[in-house]
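Re: Re: token formats

Sure, here are both.
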Amino acid sequence: MENLLSSAASHDTLPDTFVFPADQRPPASTAAVDIPVIDLSLPRDEVRRAVLDAGKALGFFQVVNHGVPEDAMRGMDAACEAFFRLPAEAKAGFFSEDPARPNRLFSSTVYGAGGERYWRDCLRLACGAFPVDDATRTAWPDKPHGIREAVERFLVPTRALGTDLLRLLCEGMGLRGDHFAGDLSGGDVVVNVNHYPPCPDPARTLGLPPHCDRNLITLLRQGGGVPGLQVAHAGGGGGDWIQVEPVPGAFVVNFGHQLEIATNGVLKSVEHRAVPDAARPRTSVATFILPTEECLVRPAEELVDAKEGPRYRAVTFREFMRVYKAVGARRESVEKAFRI
């Protein structure tokens, strides 16, 4: 708990444990690469094509006019920012370094053999029941006042948005509209509220290391208009990092490894990372839609070429997570573990 970054009044110097080697923190490219912004209020055929094209091209896109009420988004932002402003003693009861706990507050994480840590605090919340039940609510923090209600008002329509995006992808790829329903998207919905305090030397550290998401689909609300999300982009031939500029009211959408396996590689799980800011705090909210633990994830038959066969082996989500944690979250390692 003493290492919680958000409990310090300020940070004058960057501790050595947060310093990454230069080859692990290449700067973002200055190339002008725009992440597509898709208006979901347009005709469905047009939206379907745009979502699939953006997913194939970059693996990341932003959506606006998505149906999540603005007051729900603003309420979530305000509640989460207020949570991290609480004094340390008010957050202490929720702090845990046990990764098996579905609801907890933690700070940083050891990354790689060198023991470097990254510059963020995280409030992780899980929701397995919709409509949200009392057991779920009471497992969430009760401070600041109203945070449980704010999380529920945000989470329910955000999950619905993710479900609709999955249906659009199905329609675009020629799958049944409910192909991703059931166990493939029926696990806990997990929310990571990532808080990146102002950093005294952001050029020498990272907020999150390069990684690919483990889940099916991710919806990220970038908070406060402060940029920090960067996406790997091979379009220039050098594997550049490009910065995703916040768009007011938008969600950033990206795909996890489960969607890549389930679509036989038609859609990719793309590496991304986060960087802190020298002067401004940043609080973002990532909503992850996951399979159930025993769900067998395998390529859809409709997307498997009869001659080439599947590109990925079938795997339960539980087994996937065991391997994912063992090899690390980098794309190359996970690809090697599950590619046929």
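Second one below.
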Amino acid sequence: MKINKLNSIILLGFIAIIGILVAQLLWTKEAFNIEEKKFSQKAHIALIEVAKKLYQSTNRELPFENPVRKISNDYYIVNIDNDFDPAILEFYLKTEFKKINLTTDFEYAVYNCQSEEMIYGNYVSLDANTKKQSTVYFPKHKNLVYYFAIRFPNETNYLFSSLRFWFVLSLALIVILLIYVYSIYTLIQQKKYSELQRDFINNMTHEFKTPLSSILIASNYLIKQEPIIQNERLEKYTQSIIVQGNKLNQHIEKILNVAKWDHSPLELSKEKIAVLPILNDVIENIELKNQGIAIVIESDSKAVYIHADLFHFTNLVYNLIDNSIKYCAEKPSIIIRISTENNFIKLEFIDNGIGISNNEISYIYDKFYRISSNEVNGFGLGLYYVKKVCNLNHWKIKATNNPTQGITQTILIPSKS
């Protein structure tokens, strides 16, 4: 169900970006067509004004018929029906094009009645440093005697430059689409590797549990046999097999649980629970396993209640205390301090352990993370589980080094919960 939902979201996102990109390209094309029409209109207006001024010099009126004809996208002819000076024509062209803000290079040619051919006039560049000798052919037109032709060789570049914003936006959308596709590809690959890793862990741990169960069954049967009971050394070895087997079994269960949590989130069954009795029960169980430890509870209230899952909160407390015991080089001494602060119930687990460097302390709740100088056996899953339970309950947890020795792990629980 979740996979189908993820695939649907990916597909919808992909379609949305493609749709936006297509719309952007269509808008850009339409904007180009509009700019092309505007350019053509400006050219017509400017050329008509040039024709008027050429007529004014002869004291004749401009014919009613439009003298300007557009032959192609960048080529125009203007019928004057009267002789004119090419130098004056160029002056008028420059003046009118500048007046109407038509800022692009142009070239012109004039029809010569004597030779009956188009005589190339000049290439007019906006950049004084640019000189271009053109060999462009200006075709001759029938039924026209006194006329000139105008060509805009850089019209396409001029139109593209006026649409820079549109093209930059389209390019940005294309880049976003490529990043999205690459991100989705990476996500799918990571998901695939994650599933392979989880399947491998599940298969590996299950394969371990089968022979381990046989070893524990055989060891428990063996330790009850009379020859083993009578031989202190053999009994000690057998007991060591059982203890280490149970410890290995606990590690395997942790790995299986983490794989299960990654596949489906933890489900919390919240209820109102008293904190102090749970702490006392956990401490009693831990003291049975670890002789000689000192665990003290300090509370500013005799009755502290929170709304939480009993099972997971008990495991959370157990993992924090067990972690403090494991990472202690001397006799473990742990203080569990309970107080109320700014609408929060604060639980502090203060130990006298080996401590953690400031560079590594922020990573201790990461999955599989173990301190570089750590020589204690484990998989780095205990504190990861603690962090996960806190996140699901919307609690805050952090670890800080004590001024002298050990660390303090603090959990802030909203009092309203």
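The chain has nine helices and twelve strands. Residues 164-263 form one domain.
- S.
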